[in-house]
């Protein structure tokens, strides 16, 4: 070592003040070079069998660890380099002792080294060799070393020295079944615990004192703050040195639950309380939670929670509590049967959290809510059937959040997590509906978050196909999701919504609509009560929502009417208090009230109701629904294209009804035909009038013949429910006349082709007015129109229409060739061949 360097190191030992970064780098490099130099000389001396010379070189190599000028990080790098050399020394000495040399003598020789730091490192090294040689009691060596280490009180030097002691003795501590135990009595074995705890206590004190090392005096205030901050960061990086003692302590078999409860934990918690350093307290609590057994924690929960409540300001209480709770959650998942008093665990935690909030008035609400969310997860894991646990936590959350005033985004996030946790766990909203404090907690959230939670609840119901069976539960459910079915004071106006918000609104309403079909009871009367609740909720939902939600409500009601009808038919003797008629009256009020707002939706629903009442056998009710549908068409449908679509639907629905007598049916059919003939667009008028022809020739779907003889007689005869051949011909003739008046050839021919197919349909029924001559007249009209245009048909119409007509001609020829249809079709004169159509 150079003379100048020796003088610099000597000067630095006189102060605990750290030097600047550049100076540290210089000193670190010089010290490491010194380690390499004397480490080499030590190895060479060992190889030559010169033990005294090797120990002298080792002492000079260790001299660099006496410095006070290096930061913890730089000192750590130096320590690791020295440790590698000392391990080589230990290995060589162990081999040398096997040859018959005395380990005790070697242990005594190193005690005469002048400098204390090198002396103690070499005492620990030779002490390890001495323990392995078993020349003396292990406990005697350990006691000597733990006492001698008190001679180094500089925080960095002392911390690393004791860490070296811990590493060199960790596999040599007396324990049950250990080769270093000369006695198995509890008092002797407990000395290992005392040794480890003493070393831990001293190391923790030294670690805490690192924070109080002075920064260079020539720095500005800001530079000092930065230096201190960097020192704290480096200090945190050294925490594992302290934690290794607790890890080793947890591995000792002699640390039973009783020993841990009565001796180990009280000493550890006492040291944590006494040190008062936030960094140390937080880390040590984390280590205790992670390294000791879960069943140990369960038995000592009150002590741990009480200590947590008294930790210094600046300690991350949230992280410690969540770590502890998560450990118990994981333990409960795999060892649920081993936990005897699960309710007691929840109660202890509840009291502990209450104590924490009492002792730490400034505990951030967001941290408290995070802890409570973990507590809910624990309660769900311990006993998910005890919903009172979760409800108590939710009440605590509500009180804490509401008392905090305005909610920050962090608090809102935690409330969202609290609400989502039981929803995700149970996968059954029926359980959620038993909470008394769930809905109030939702109300604390801003509009956008309430909206998300409500949608999650509905999606949970849908994904798990959860049926809500009572009207009271349905009311409770809509308290949770009311933001999706009614306007809120804090909701933005529709004009303020962007495209995403509008799309989201439609998705929400779609979810609500699908939800309706899961709200029903096995009891039909209760199902009707549920529908009444829905009608009340949707009735107050506003125009924007009701056009979406009313349809599933109506369809659910119609389905209920069928169930009631079937029940009454199967139980004729029973006087059932609910009838399908009452359901139709209920639906009638809903749908007719919708007509002024959304006539098209109302019209379609009225037609659905007409079909349902037809199936249930209520002629008067069915007639009323059809009348209201036609009135809605007359009064509210004004757009031409929509009028065509609606009159087509009305006509199609009327064709399916079988409940009416001839007079009522004729009245409705005439109205439908009349409105078809009044359409303004000629194409639509011709097509609609033609389709109305089907209204005047309706096949009966019901079988009225009772006897087998009658069935045989009428086997081949079509059964007609309603016929008015004169009106039928009138519709077709008017359609031909209107179509023929079109100026645009493509549209005219397309309509004439469609009318031709309608005529071919009725030809099979041997209707006097719609016979082969009538079809021939229409074909002649088509061919004449083709000739008038003086060109090929393929050039007059679209390819689709052209192929349609060709297929029709082929069909006529096919029917003429078949025995069962030959008589009906043979009189049709096809004056144009398929080749002529090209």
Automatic annotation (TrEMBL):
Q: Report the locations given in the UniProt record.
A: Membrane
Pfam families under this entry?
A: Vps35
Keyword hit for Lipoprotein: no
Bilayer topology annotation: Peripheral membrane protein
Q: Which family does it belong to?
A: Belongs to the VPS35 family.
This chain's function reads: Plays a role in vesicular protein sorting.
Instruction: Write down what this protein is called.
Output: Vacuolar protein sorting-associated protein 35
């Amino acid at each position: 070592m150079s003379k100048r360097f020796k003088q610099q190191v000597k000067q630095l030992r006189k102060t605990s003040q750290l030097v600047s970064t550049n100076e540290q780098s210089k000193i670190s490099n010089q010290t490491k070079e010194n380690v390499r130099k004397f480490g080499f000389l030590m190895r060479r001396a060992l190889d030559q069998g010169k033990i005294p010379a090797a120990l002298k070189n080792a002492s000079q190599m260790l001299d660099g660890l006496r410095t006070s000028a290096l930061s913890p990080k730089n000192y750590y790098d130096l320590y690791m380099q020295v440790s590698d050399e000392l391990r080589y020394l230990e290995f060589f000495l162990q081999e040398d002792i096997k040859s018959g040399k005395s380990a005790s003598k070697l242990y005594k020789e190193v005690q005469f080294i002048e400098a204390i730091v090198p002396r103690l490192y070499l005492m620990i090294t030779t002490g390890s060799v001495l323990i392995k040689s078993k020349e003396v009691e292990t406990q005697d060596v350990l006691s000597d070393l733990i006492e001698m280490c008190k001679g180094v009180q500089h925080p960095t030097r002392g911390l690393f020295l004791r860490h070296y002691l811990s590493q060199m003795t960790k596999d040599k501590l007396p324990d049950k079944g250990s080769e270093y135990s000369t006695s198995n009595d509890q008092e002797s074995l407990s000395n290992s615990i005392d040794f480890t705890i003493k070393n831990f206590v001293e190391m923790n004190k030294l670690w805490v004192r690192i924070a109080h090392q002075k920064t260079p005096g020539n720095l500005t205030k800001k530079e000092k703050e930065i230096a201190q901050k960097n020192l704290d960061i480096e200090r945190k990086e050294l925490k594992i040195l302290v934690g290794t003692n607790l890890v080793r302590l947890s591995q000792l078999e002699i640390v039973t639950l009783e020993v841990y409860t009565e001796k180990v934990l009280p000493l550890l918690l006492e040291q944590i309380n006494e040190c008062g350093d936030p960094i140390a307290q937080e880390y040590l609590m984390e280590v205790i939670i992670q390294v000791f057994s879960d069943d140990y924690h369960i038995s000592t929960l009150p002590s741990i929670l009480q200590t947590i409540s008294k930790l210094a300001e600046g300690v991350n209480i949230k992280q410690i509590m969540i770590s502890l709770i998560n450990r118990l959650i994981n333990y409960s998942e795999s060892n649920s049967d081993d936990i005897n008093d699960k309710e007691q665990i929840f109660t202890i935690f509840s009291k502990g959290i209450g104590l924490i909030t009492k002792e730490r008035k400034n505990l951030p609400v967001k941290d408290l809510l995070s802890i409570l969310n973990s507590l809910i997860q624990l309660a769900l894991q311990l006993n998910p059937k005890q919903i009172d646990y979760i409800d108590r936590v939710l009440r605590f959350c509500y009180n804490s959040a509401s008392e905090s005033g305005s909610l920050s985004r962090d608090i809102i996030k935690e409330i969202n997590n609290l609400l989502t946790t039981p929803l995700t766990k149970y996968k059954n909203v029926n359980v959620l509906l038993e909470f008394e404090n769930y809905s109030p907690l939702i109300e604390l959230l801003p509009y956008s978050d309430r909206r998300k939670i409500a949608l999650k609840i509905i999606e949970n119901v849908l994904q798990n196909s959860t049926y809500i069976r009572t009207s009271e539960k349905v009311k409770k459910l809509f308290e949770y999701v009311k933001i999706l079915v009614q306007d809120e004071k804090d909701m933005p106006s529709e004009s303020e919504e962007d495209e995403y918000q509008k799309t989201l609104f439609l998705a929400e309403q779609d979810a609500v609509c699908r939800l309706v079909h899961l709200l029903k009871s096995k009891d039909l009367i209760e199902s009707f009560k549920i529908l009444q609740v829905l009608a009340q909720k949707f009735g107050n939902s506003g125009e924007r929502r009701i056009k979406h939600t009313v349809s599933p409500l109506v369809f659910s009601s119609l389905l209920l009417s069928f169930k009631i009808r079937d029940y009454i038919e199967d139980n004729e003797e029973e006087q059932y208090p609910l009838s399908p008629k009452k359901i139709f009256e209920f639906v009638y009020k809903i749908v007719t009230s919708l007509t002024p707002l959304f006539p098209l939706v109302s019209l379609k629903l009225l037609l659905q109701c007409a079909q349902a009442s037809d199936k249930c056998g209520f002629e008067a009710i069915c007639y009323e629904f059809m009348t209201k549908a036609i009135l809605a068409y007359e009064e509210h449908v004004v757009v031409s294209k929509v009028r065509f679509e609606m009159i087509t639907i009305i006509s199609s629905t009327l064709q399916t009804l079988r409940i009416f007598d001839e007079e009522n049916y004729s009245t409705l059919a005439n109205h439908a035909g009349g409105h078809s003939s009044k359409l303004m667009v000629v194409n639509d008028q011709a097509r609609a009038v033609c389709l109305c022809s089907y209204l005047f020739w309706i096949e009966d779907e019901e079988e009225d013949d009772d006897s087998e003889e009658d069935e045989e007689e009428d086997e081949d005869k079509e059964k007609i429910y309603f016929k008015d051949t004169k009106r039928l011909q009138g519709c077709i003739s008017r359609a031909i006349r209107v179509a023929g008046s079109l100026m645009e050839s493509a549209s005219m021919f397309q309509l004439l082709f469609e009318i031709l197919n309608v005529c071919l349909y009725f030809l099979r029924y041997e209707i006097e007015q719609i016979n082969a001559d009538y079809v021939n007249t229409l074909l002649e009209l088509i061919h004449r129109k083709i000739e008038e245009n003086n060109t090929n048909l393929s050039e007059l119409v679209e390819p689709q229409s052209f192929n349609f007509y060709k297929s029709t001609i082929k069909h006529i020829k096919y029917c003429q060739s078949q025995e069962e249809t030959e008589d009906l079709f043979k009189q049709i004169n096809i004056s144009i061949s398929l080749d002529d159509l090209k």
